[in-house]
Amino acid sequence: MAIRLRVSKCPADPKVQEGSGIPWGAAVTPFAAHDEKGIAPVILPLEKSHALPRCDTCWAYFSSLYETEQYSWRCALCDSVNSFSEADIVRYSSPQNCPELSSSFIDLEIKGKRGHPCFIPMVLATSEEFLELIKSALLAALEVLFGLATFSHKIGLYDVQGPVPVVKSVFIPPELDGHVLVELEDAMPLWSFLAPIEKNKENIAAALDTLKPTSSWERTTAAGQGIEGVTMGGRGFGVAMDAILNYLGAEQGITFALARVFAFLSGPPDYGAGQLDTRRYGEQYASKGEDADKALLPEQTSFYKDLAGVAVQAGVCVDIFAVTDEYTDLASLKFLSIDSGGSLFLYANTDDSTLPQDL
Question: Which of 55, 101, 193, 208 could form a disulfide with 75 if both were Cys (CB 3.0 to 4.6 A apart)?
Fold first, then answer.
């Protein structure tokens, strides 16, 4: 679930709540010293935790805020009455032994390695101006674990932990429902891809200097392919993002405290799965006598909304930086960033862009 940070509560008062249609709001205070009743959190080892009952109607978790009877409990959010299982009846017959009934906050202690923050920029190499903007932004933002990937009609994975940057490429199939034929983990192990910043900052800078715009020959080759009359270009963003998310979620036993993917786009995805047909809107609204620029455009595909679910499961947050003056269908792309807890930025050109500061 994405959490938006604010300095005020929303809804601010009952009138705003009723007018906005928001059923309820929540204030999240990380690492709070006590709950709303002044009670300190219960610290509980993970192995001693129990699965909490959930409301059959709204899926809310059972807590100390709910009314309970011997065999049932009433949800405080939707007012539904739920039955306890036999195991729960036995457990809650001694409420003093149930941490969830003594405090609203329970801190679970998880033994093992600490999480690893990591940052992965995905760059579409299109022009010198675009690449120079991306390079300057990334060099100023380097920290912790860092992995560099490029995408066009293929995915490029950079190993920057050696004296010379090494790039492994995985081609993106042009089919509208295609996936990469080779898993990224097989092309390059994840821990070869993710480099500790403190040891490899110069190597990363050298790798960024090797980024070049996609050659006209490569773009012509990719654009020459088509499916069902749809001409394809060289921005295989959908498949590349799907592969990267599976890449990060495939490593067993590794937890990322913060995995953040910075996706840099210079236009709409137009190759492989997740491609967006931006031409249809002009024709669609022109036939109705409407101005497409003034219409509220719905998303044309649920691909990126579904992809956001994959990102959340993998613990990955996606930020999208679009530097383009052409229509890019952000109505479809926005779900990938917003639903994963990231941000969406749009810049009309590289000259007036504030991308380095935003990054």
Answer: 55
Residues 37 and 180 grouped into a single domain: no
Report if residue 251 sits inside a domain.
yes
Domain check: are 169 and 254 in the same one? Answer: yes
CA-CA distance, 269 to 238, in Å (whole number)? 7
- In angstroms, the CA 299 to CA 63 distance is 38
Residues 89 and 146 in one domain: no
pLDDT digits (tens, 9 = 90+) for 228-267: 444 445 788 888 888 888 888 755 445 455 678 888 888 8
Residue 342 placed within a domain: yes
Percent of the chain with pLDDT over 90: 1
Beta-ladder partners of 149: 122, 157
- How far is CA 175 from its chain centroid? 24
Nearest to 318 by CA among 250, 240, 262, 255: 262
| This prediction's pTM | 0.59
Spatial contact of 211 and 132, defined as CB atoms under 8 Å apart: no
The domain that holds 206 is classified in CATH as 3.40.50.410
SS3 label, residue 116: coil
How many folded domains does the chain comprise? Answer: 2
Pairwise CA distance, residues 237 & 24, whole Å: 36
Q: For residue 253, give every residue at least 6 positions away whose Cβ sits within 8 Å of its Cβ, in sequence order, or none.
A: none
User: With pLDDT > 70 as the criterion, what percentage of the chain qualifies?
Assistant: 70
